[in-house]
Design goal:
This protein is of the alpha/beta class and 179 residues long. It is 46% helix and 19% strand.
């Protein structure tokens, strides 16, 4: 029997994937899912859909992480989450833009929730890995998670483990990495 957490995640995923919805609505629903997941982690608070002063960049989710027991102790106190509920993988240009948003805000960590991962085309995949490696050299870490990852979560501790594992893999591999 599925837990309340698993049932809520399944409902969020079903709504976010509704083919009858507009892309904007599917995107907001994916953001709702990520907000729910992050708020379920001990010590995490979120702020949603924040524009910069000039109105030129929007941050989907800003996370305050108190680094408490059972929470995201391996991650920084503040980080950003970019949600891309696209039917195709995210391209390298989008990844590069996210790295720049992180740099503009002085953040050392970004979580890219890309429903279908990053580009599968070899040339563009190479570019995405180059962008991820260059970001790491600049002190910016990008953790990539997918809808497949989210669908396997049984509770908040699984999200903590997933993000910690991706953070470790990022260091080991030197670029964006899927487990």
């Amino acid at each position: 029997m599925a837990s309340m957490f698993e049932a809520r995640v399944a409902t969020y995923l079903r709504r976010a994937g509704d083919p009858g919805s507009t892309p904007e609505r599917r995107g907001r629903r994916y953001e709702n899912l990520l907000s729910y997941l992050l708020e379920s982690v001990p010590g995490c608070q979120v702020q949603r859909n924040t524009l910069n002063y000039y109105g030129t960049e929007e941050v989907d989710i800003t996370v305050a992480n108190e680094k408490v027991q059972g929470g995201l102790r391996m991650l920084p106190e503040i980080f950003l989450v970019e949600c891309k509920n696209w039917s195709n993988p995210v391209d390298s240009t989008t990844l590069g833009y996210f790295v720049n948003v992180l740099a503009d805000r002085g953040c050392s960590l970004g979580v890219l929730a890309a429903a279908n991962g990053i580009t599968g085309h070899q040339e563009h995949r190479g570019r995405a890995h180059a962008i991820g490696a260059a970001a790491l050299v600049r002190g910016i870490r990008i953790l990539l998670i997918t809808t497949e990852d989210l669908g396997k979560l049984e509770g908040p501790s699984d999200l903590v483990a997933l993000l910690h594992q991706r953070n470790l893999a990022l260091t080991a591999h030197g670029s964006v990495h899927l487990g």
